Amino acid sequence: MTEMRRSYCGLCHPRCGLLLEIENGTIVKVKGDPHHPISKGRLCQRGRLMRDHVYHPDRINTPLKRKGDKGAGHWQQLTWDQALDEVAEQLSGLREQYGAETLAFTHGTKRTYHWDERRFFNLFGSPNICGANNICMCPSQAVEFATYGGFTWGDVIHTKCLVLWGHAPSKSNPIGLYPMILQAQKNGAQLIVVDPRRIPEAEKADIWLPIRPGTDVALMLGWLRIIIEEKLYDAEFVANWTIGFEDLKAAAAEYTPQKVAEITWLSPEQVVSSARRYATTKPAMITWGFGLDKQGLNATQAARARSCLRAISGNLDIKGGEPLGWNEPIGKIIGDEEIEFNSALPQEQRAKQLGADQYPFFGFPGWSRNLKANRRMPTEYMHPPHADMTCVAHARSVFDAMITAKPYAVKAAISVASNPLLSLPNVQHTYQALKQLALYVVGEFYLTPSAALADYVFPICSTVETTELWLTPSFCVACPRGIDPLYERHNTYDFWRGLALRLGQKEHWPWETVDDVWNYRLAPTGLTFDQLLEKNGLFGRPQYKRYEKFGFGTPSGKVELRSTIFAELGCEPVPVYREPPHSPKGDMTLAKSFPLVLITGSRFMPMYHSEQRQIQAARKKRPDPLVTLHPDTAKTLGLTEGEWVKVASPLGSVRMRLRVSDTVDQRMADADHGWWFPERPQKAPELFGVFKSNINLLCPDGPEFCSPESGSWPHSALLCRVSKAD
Ligand SMILES: Nc1nc2c(c(=O)[nH]1)N[C@H]1C(S)=C(S)[C@@H](COP(=O)(O)OP(=O)(O)OC[C@H]3O[C@@H](n4cnc5c(=O)[nH]c(N)nc54)[C@H](O)[C@@H]3O)O[C@H]1N2
Ligand SMILES: Nc1nc2c(c(=O)[nH]1)N[C@H]1C(S)=C(S)[C@@H](COP(=O)(O)OP(=O)(O)OC[C@H]3O[C@@H](n4cnc5c(=O)[nH]c(N)nc54)[C@H](O)[C@@H]3O)O[C@H]1N2
Ligand code: SF4
Ligand SMILES: [Mo]
């Protein structure tokens, strides 16, 4: 019997709608759901592989317990009850001996619920959730809360000037954002692209600025200077709704077009004309882009400078510009901060958060200030900053504590929906740390190199086997379960609640299933999850300039061009540019041996970070890790397209295949991230070849490379050398 069922894809963020053709309980075909309110039937190359993913022979289908040495590759199957009992008992013992802070969590990109893990950690008593949060979007969110009390998404469809700054949605968001950008251009929007590579967006752009990686803050200060000097800013908005304008003006003063050009590989004319275009084409918006977040030292100040540009140009909270706040009635839905239950974590435990002394803005000191300022706003207008996006421990400090037991011992860790050996920098350090743990628990689809080091692995179901409430400030969509979970797979809520019930948290987990949580969260709208499923999404009505009624959720109630919170925490309160330590200008001696500027992790389809490497159809499209060089550079080095090369930095080296393309500058190299080889042996230290082509072997995480405010480490703006492979 054939049946069509609606479901959704979670193989990356947007949660596109799926239609599953099911025969005798088995998915036989996957296509896009034409009635989905956002994806409208579109499906990307990766989404089309959902069937291969759900039924892949490498999927973990029962809980596993390590047999023999860590990483030896021998496993014993357990039931969920047995596995949860054993893990809970060990966690309880470790908490008694070392304190709750001995348990850490590693976070990946947001692929599952995550408020569930935060709730568990708050109730368990540990502040030590760490992971990719320091580098991916989260510091930008925290910065925007500190600057104007919320996060902007940009009104792509109505804008007249769209700036893609370190952002390549043609490869990173092909179904959601990219078609909207093409539509905006059709509607007459100007497109400015700031990217060292000639990406497809750059080819379509009105202005393309091929910037030297890591120097964007200098360009932003250059734009700010021109906009201020030439009085292109919104004087009325600046006078009534901002503080710190004179400080900003002073900070930008030295960034003349000439100086910016010397720093950025751009010409003075490019700097001037792009600034004028942005400031005089109204309304305008700048998207969030990972190209800024991945530059380490400058990442947080880049987010600050971008916020200041949005504000003084008069684009905040207007149609076609940078809307702020939650639309009515979406804002009524119970937000992540509340469901995370952050108030459960006592002050004395918050004070133990690792790394918060060094990077205070992104730990509890910054978060609690953001939260306090936010409290002046009605929650319906602006949901409070949720801790998962704005308050984490620093991964390096957490891994140090695993290895050295300083300042205290971190003996246990849980990774759910994260592959830290592939996604975090300084791979050898992560490896040494994970090996030291008394207890390492992983919730996964597959045995990844990280999971291979675990003591227990729990099988997590695919998105089509569970539900989700997809919530953004402007809309909310109920994501339906397509099939019942296969084998012994469960969703992450069941995992956390299973542990919670065994560790004395029962009264705080009254919802038996995740669907009960959705109903609880939706209750203020008067809808149930099932009703929302029928309704095909809930859309909010956009409202603009609500600051005229509520002010901004910052300490002063205004847009803080000079940030009070940064100043209180001893961070630079006004945007500042810093030369990256490993750059042609930052270390000229080093640049002699490592002459190319290295960027990593530029997105490509159909892979998502370290995923899909075991899926044949995906590997056919991209069999090997690639590094890209300009034809002139390859020629000078005596290298040819397709040969295996060695990419080395002062930290380590990897093997990749060479791609030759004039889309990159002669002075740079662009290397894939996320590469391991599921076809290789599992047994450590091979770990599926995790040390062969993993570009994070070249990415550092020491304090000289990290942004002092948020601890963002660099995956870009580094130096490397490319030579023939040994
Ligand atoms: N060099 C370099 N490194 C980078 C980047 C870069 O550009 N360059 N990008 C960084 C960025 S922006 C990010 S966000 C991180 C991403 O870091 P990660 O999120 O750690 O990356 P993934 O490889 O996607 O790993 C997620 C793992 O979780 C599993 N998984 C996926 N969905 C689920 C789920 O719903 N439940 C469970 N339990 N498991 C699931 C997958 O099988 C996979 O093994 O990487 C960062 N690392
Ligand atoms: N196919 C695919 N899609 C993905 C992912 C994936 O792994 N694969 N990951 C998802 C995740 S978690 C994220 S965070 C998003 C990220 O999505 P994007 O923001 O599009 O991120 P990237 O492709 O990493 O980088 C964007 C651009 O930044 C440029 N860049 C690098 N360094 C610099 C710099 O110093 N300055 C400037 N101005 N530009 C620079 C690169 O050339 C690149 O074109 O993608 C998401 N979508
Ligand atoms: S863009 Fe592709 S992978 Fe991402 S959710 Fe949509 S269909 Fe899935
Ligand atoms: Mo990310």
What does this structure look like?
The protein is an alpha/beta fold. It has 29 helices and 25 strands. A seven-stranded mixed β-sheet has the order 5-4-15-14-13-6-7, sandwiched between helices. It has a six-stranded mixed barrel with strand order 20-24-21-23-22-25. Helix 2 crosses helix 22 and helix 8 packs parallel to helix 14 (299-312). The longest helix is centred in the N-terminal third of the chain and has 19 residues, at 80-98. The termini are far apart. The chain binds ligand MGD (2 copies), iron/sulfur cluster and molybdenum atom.
Query: Structural class from helices and strands?
Result: alpha/beta
Mean pLDDT: 97
Question: Roughly how many Å is the radius of gyration?
Answer: 24 Å
User: Count the strands?
Assistant: 25
- The residue ranges in which pLDDT falls below 50 over 5 or more consecutive positions are none
Helix content: 25-40%
Instruction: Characterize the main sheet.
Output: 7 strands, mixed
Shape: globular
- How much strand content do the residues show? 15-25%
Counting H and I runs of at least 4 residues, what is the number of helices? Answer: 29
Bound molecules: ligand MGD, iron/sulfur cluster, molybdenum atom
Q: What is the first-to-last residue Cα distance? A: 57 Å
Largest sheet, spatial ordering of strands? 5-4-15-14-13-6-7
